[in-house]
Amino acid sequence: STTNIASSHPSASSLTTRILILSVSGSLSAQYIPLTNTIFACQRLSIPIDVAKLAGDAVFLEQASDATRGIYLHIDYPKGLLQYLMMAFLPDQVSRRFLMNPGKTGVDFRAACFCHRKVVDLGFVCSVCLSIFCAPPDDAICLTCGTQLKLGNYGQKPVVVARKKKKRKSRMDGTADAGSGAATPVR
Q1: Contact yes or no for 168/178 (Cβ under 8 A)
Q2: Measured between alpha carbons, how far is 113 from 124 in angstroms, rounded to an integer?
Q3: Distances (CA, A) of 110 to 20, 30, 86
Q4: What would the pLDDT profile of 67-119 be if each residue is shown by its tens digit?
Q5: Cα 60 to Cα 65: distance, rounded to the nearest angstrom
Q6: Whole-structure pTM over 0.90, yes or no?
Q7: Alpha helices in 1-154 (DSSP H)
Q8: What is the mean pLDDT of residues 133-142?
């Protein structure tokens, strides 16, 4: 375990760990499960994931960077890659507090479905691998991990149950009272 290593080696506790991802393609569907596990572990251990995006659509990596308090940077000029790496990603977490970090834009937290890669506001999630689908997959089998999905009564028309009408209290004179029964005091 990490705590045992840190307590047995005094110099190990002073190490700062970071992850830098150089993104050169947009498709991450094959690496979704390992990357998701990495994000959860980095959140638990307070390890930032920094992302240098050279090409492709990296929405999931942008979310990973934001979730772990890392830096996400779209590199406009690949010829200056070394300068980007030295100025934006080389400083450690303590030094970054005193520097002007690259500006964060609004992170899009919507997910893209795994079947069509389109952004969905509401979808179906596999309970094993957390893959997201815009519609239930064929034969209700997860396309990522192969788990049989239990959809329950999805697709059936919901049963509408009529509400019971409340009885109104009647007054002494025989008319119905719509109020709470407590009269307003008159002065």
Answers
A1: yes
A2: 9
A3: 23, 19, 31
A4: 898 888 888 888 988 888 888 888 887 887 787 777 666 777 777 777 777 77
A5: 9
A6: no
A7: 2-8, 32-45, 59-67, 81-84, 93-96
A8: 82
